[in-house]
Each structure stands twice: as C-alpha cells, then as structure tokens.
Amino acid sequence: MTDKNTGVHPMEDPEAQLERAFIDEYLRLHGHDPEEVRLLPEAEVITLLEAASIYAAGKLAELASRSHYVHDIHAKD
C-alpha cells in the first residue's frame, strides 16, 4: 500500500481545510494578509477572527445546504 499525502490528517475534521480557506478569504476581502493578522492589536485580532469564523460557518452551511439540495434532486430520478 502506498502512502498518499493528501494534507489531511486521519483525525482532522474533513471540513477544517475548507473552513480555514473561507477564513483566509474573509481576511483578504477585508484587506488583511492572513499571515500577518496576528501582528495587529489583540482586540482587533479577536474581532476580526470572530467575524471571519462567522463568515466561514455561513459558507460551510451554504455548501451543505446546496449539497443536500443536489442530492435530493438526483434521488428523485
């Protein structure tokens, strides 16, 4: 058996990478480099990351909803 390096650890949440990508997207949309956010004042970092987490949760929920919708459409065929 060959090892495939997928970048996802066996016990990691499968949506974790996608969630991180949405958080990074939010930060970039609001003019911040995700790698440099932690250099901001602590209060600003907390506020920004809370908003980014809410954004990411909404995007993940949207994807889940669309996935269920597509599944329902194909299940009726």
Beta-strand content bin? under 5%
Whole-number average pLDDT?
A: 86
Order of helices and strands: HH
Shape: elongated
Q: Determine the number of helices (DSSP H or I, runs of at least 4 residues).
A: 2
Largest sheet: none
- Strand segment tally: 0
Radius of gyration: 17 Å
The chain-level structural class is mainly alpha
Termini gap: 38 Å
Helical proportion? 55-70%
Which stretches of 5+ consecutive residues score pLDDT under 50? none
What does this structure look like?
This protein is mainly α and about 80 residues long. The protein has two helices and no strands. α1 crosses α2 (about 40-75). The protein is elongated, with a radius of gyration of 17 Å. The relative contact order is 0.11.
